[in-house]
Amino acid sequence: MFNKNGDDPVIKIGIVMYGKKPSVGGGAERRFARLSNFAAAQYPSLEIHLIANRYLIDLLRQSEICMSNLVIHEIEPDTPLLFNIRLIQVVTDLHLSCVHLVLFQKMLLPFYGWLRMNTQIHYIQTIADSSFIDIIKGKSLRGFLYRSIVGNADLVDCLYPRFGQNEWLSELGSKVRITPCSFTDFTYFSPRSKEDVVAFVGRLVSDKNPLFLVEAANILNKQNLVRDWTFVILGDGPLLNVIVDDIKRKGLESSFLILSAYSSREVLSKSSIFVSLQKRENYPSQSLLEAMSCENAIIATNVGDTCRIVTPECGLVVDDSPRDLARALAILMNDDALRKGFGANARSFASRTQRLDTAAEYMFHLWQEAYRIGRTSDDHAEQ
Fold it and tell me: How far are the Cα atoms of 41, 49, 179, 280, 358 from residue 67, in angstroms, in the given order?
């Protein structure tokens, strides 16, 4: 099959994603929806099919991510077993050049099993989990499954540059690729009139350290440094009730606002400081880049590849402790010029270095390579 604009063959890619509650989070899903839609517009030889459950498609639409260049397949019903059955039917009917799986998700294990038995269907696995290296080192069932899934993939797309030094991934040789950068929508996420707001956006789980912000605010409150500042936590997850109780116990109800919404634009466009407090990795966080795009001064834990995007000109990096976070917050809350300078620099730096066109070019070549692998396999099978 050839595209209507030339002699290049049509490369049919199936992006497979499954979204589940709670609704706040989903950076990888947002990232791939933006990337796929842009790539489909830029490269006429691509025909990109987004295959996902209706719940996730609805969330992506609520976040106002443009998907007009994608062929969308909403799979119902939403139960895991029936989703896998329908997914296999859709992939079979589409005769795809390649399937691209964005996340490791245990509910897709039946689909992975089917892919292993149907070797004529080629797949790319993205590593978008910063805990991946720790998991594959262990002897758990999860570690075994991760190694098996990545080992069976035709190509591996890794978001984290530091993972390229891992011995096990190195043994996979030429099929491992490192994503050159992250990106966001710098038009959609733009600054408005700034307010005295500190923002946290993300899933309310222990790996993201949301309770650190509550404890840091408590430290500042005892020093009478909070004043008219508001701390906004935008997210949902298993720690929600724990956070609410902790805020009440510390008497900080008037200083905190907890919200739940899929799009962060309304908060980040007005907030002045953004905190990214993950235990393992803040790169390539979509929420962090959205905050930088909205000219927030950044405070981030100094872990992993965080310093690739949080430079000394864009914000402050801190140790994994509420006291160090409180210290950094006090600096920025009390220095308007520094805070505004960091915010302007953050948007400028991110828009120069974390470019959607660069990521799309990389992904286009990856999909081309997967297509060639498929063609080579088909030729061998015919001989």
Answer: 10, 10, 22, 31, 19
